[in-house]
Every structure is written in structure tokens, then in C-alpha cells.
Write a structure and sequence with these properties.
Elements lengths: L3 E7 L2 E7 L5 E5 L4 E6 L27 E2 L21 E8 L2 E9 L2 H6 L4 E9 L3 E10 L5 E7 L2 E3 L6 E4 L5 E4 L5 E4 L4 E3 L4 E5 L6 E5 L2 E8 L3 E6 L1 H6 L12 E14 L4 E10 L1
Antiparallel strand pairs: 1-2, 2-3, 3-4, 5-10, 6-7, 7-8, 8-9, 9-21, 10-20, 11-20, 12-15, 12-17, 13-14, 13-16, 16-19, 17-18, 18-21, 19-20
The structure holds 6-O-phosphono-beta-D-glucopyranose.
Length: 281
């Protein structure tokens, strides 16, 4: 079947389904401009979506690939992770070829966003699905008359069978801020990371791709424009405090996020791009 794109309802909300080559598919919700599902040709769902996720826009949808913007985490006075996760984006350009399907979602400032953050902007999230690969690009255009600065992330929730059994390679030799342990900055000296407790690490200036290995399944991630990588798992206790996570949710996810932790300055009229690529290998 040739790649195609259709408008669907997913958990009761408007979304686009990208049907890619060899049976690959992805679902992108208009709420949040958020990828919620990515299935590779082997039939496996690669993204975690919480069974208790809320789809009414009152809180961000827990799982998939939320867009955090114009603030990452609590690095400022805005709501945590900014405000675009709970806004409705508009469908933009769509294109399909023999080996890809591509869709763009767009969001601009309005009165409500300007009340929170007094700047004019236009965001485009472009999702390109190929057989074993998913590319996300966030473009930020400053449509106002003065420069602004933002932090942000593509907050990717990877689905894993059992997080205790996975390793993540590619972060050797990088400094990280350990947000789960008093924000101390540590240099990673291990060849890989294993998750054995709550983990909330901001790896800085990451230059290499990361490789998530889980038994005979591997997934590579790489980012451009976003210079930092966050590795996050809430583990048992924090997960238990999260209303939109099942008790065992922590076990089935690992966030490997493409992050801009240092403020990115966009002059008036200019554009910035950041990307994250996920490849099933
Ligand atoms: O619950 P939220 O707002 O989606 O945030 C989830 C997590 O997102 C991660 O990016 C942060 O590093 C964590 O500190 C945070 O807890």
C-alpha cells in the first residue's frame, strides 16, 4: 500500500494517522502537536502512552512525544514544560512519497499565550515517517518585533518491556546535571546507563547518537539543534504520585529527550530548527 495520511479520532481527540511504507504507522494528535503512537513494520509500538493518560486538554497527555515549549521543566516562571502541550495545533502541509509520509502541525501565539508569555511566534512540528525511522523537526519563528529566548524539548517516551533490562549507550564522557539528586553535576564515566532507581539527568552538549538496547531490540536516537539529552524515569515512588500513570507505568517507559536547556535566542523575524530522529535498528 502506498503511504497515506488520514484524519482520525484517537482516544476521542482529533489526530492524523500517517500510514508509512511496509505497514509502519504513526499517530499525531492535534492536541499538543504530539506524536502518540509509532509502530514499526515488525508490528511493535515504540512509544509509551500511559493507560491513564488524560485526553481532555486539562493536563498534558502522558506519553508519546510531547513538545515542551517555550520553557523546559521548571527553568522559569511559566507552567512546567511551557504551555503548548495543552493547546490545539492546526494541520499544515502533508506529503507522501513511495517511502515516506510527512505531516506538519502548526501553532501561533494568541491572546491566551500572550497573557502567559508576551511574544509572537509560529511553531511548526514536522513529522516524517519512513519504514524504520521517525523524524521530528520543531521550527520556531519569531513573528514579533523584538528578540525572545526559549528553552524546550521533544520529550520522547520510549516504550520498553522492562526498564530494568535496558541499557542506553552514547552518553559516555558527558557531564550531566542530576536533577533527581540535588542538581549536582557529574561526568558520566560508564559505557552505558542502566536504570535502577529514579533517574532525571540532563546530559549537556551531547555529540553522539544514543542507542537503547533491550534484548534483541535496539533503537537509536539522535538530535540536532537541541544540544542536551534528558534521560528520565520516575521509578516506583514518584510514579505512584502521578495521577495519570498506572502503578507499573515506570517499568514500561524510558524518556530520552532532545532538550535545549540553555536559552535559545531568536531575533525578530528569524527562525530556529531542532530535530530528533528515532531509528529502529
Ligand atoms: O510531569 P511532567 O510535567 O510531564 O514532567 C515529567 C518529567 O519531565 C522530564 O523532562 C523532567 O526532567 C522531569 O523532572 C519531569 O518530572
Amino acid at each position: 500500500m502506498k503511504p497515506s495520511i488520514e484524519e482520525i479520532e484517537f482516544h476521542g481527540i482529533a489526530a492524523l494517522r500517517l500510514n508509512g511504507p511496509r505497514g509502519a504507522s504513526a499517530v499525531v494528535s492535534k492536541l499538543g502537536g504530539q506524536v502518540l503512537s509509532w509502530i514499526t513494520p515488525d508490528g511493535r509500538e515504540r512509544l509509551f502512552l500511559s493507560d491513564k493518560a488524560v485526553f481532555d486538554g486539562s493536563v498534558a497527555i502522558r506519553g508519546g512525544i510531547p513538545v515542551c515549549w517555550p520553557q523546559f521543566a521548571e527553568l522559569g516562571d511559566l507552567p512546567k514544560h511551557g504551555f503548548v502541550r495543552t493547546r490545539t495545533w492546526q494541520a499544515g502541509a502533508q506529503r507522501c512519497g513511495d517511502d515516506y509520509a510527512l505531516a506538519t502541525l502548526e501553532l501561533s501565539d494568541d491572546e491566551a499565550t500572550r497573557t502567559l508569555w508576551p511574544h509572537s511566534f509560529h511553531l511548526e512540528l514536522t513529522v516524517m515517517l519512513e519504514a524504520d525511522r521517525l523524524d521530528l523537526e520543531l521550527s520556531v519563528t519569531n513573528t514579533g518585533g523584538a528578540e525572545f529566548a526559549f528553552t524546550g524539548a521533544l520529550h520522547t517516551y520510549l516504550r520498553v518491556v522492562q526498564v530494568e533490562d535496558v541499557t542506553l549507550e552514547g552518553l559516555y564522557g558527558h557531564d550531566y546535571r542530576d536533577a533527581a539528586n540535588g542538581d549536582v553535576v557529574i561526568r558520566d564515566t560508564g559505557t552505558h546507563i542502566a536504570v535502577e532507581a529514579e533517574m532525571d539527568r540532563v546530559y549537556r552538549q551531547v555529540r553522539r547518537p544514543q542507542l537503547l538496547q533491550a534484548g534483541n531490540l535496539s533503537l537509536a536516537t539522535q538530535s540536532q539543534g537541541f544540544h542536551d539529552v534528558v534521560v528520565w524515569n520516575p521509578w516506583v515512588d514518584k510514579c505512584a504520585t502521578m495521577a495519570d500513570m498506572p502503578a507499573d507505568g515506570w517499568r514500561h517507559m524510558l524518556c530520552v529527550e532532545a532538550v535545549a536547556e540553555q536559552p535559545v535566542v531568536v531575533p525578530a523575524g528569524e527562525e530556529w530548527y531542532g530535530r530528533q530522529t528515532l531509528v529502529a535498528v
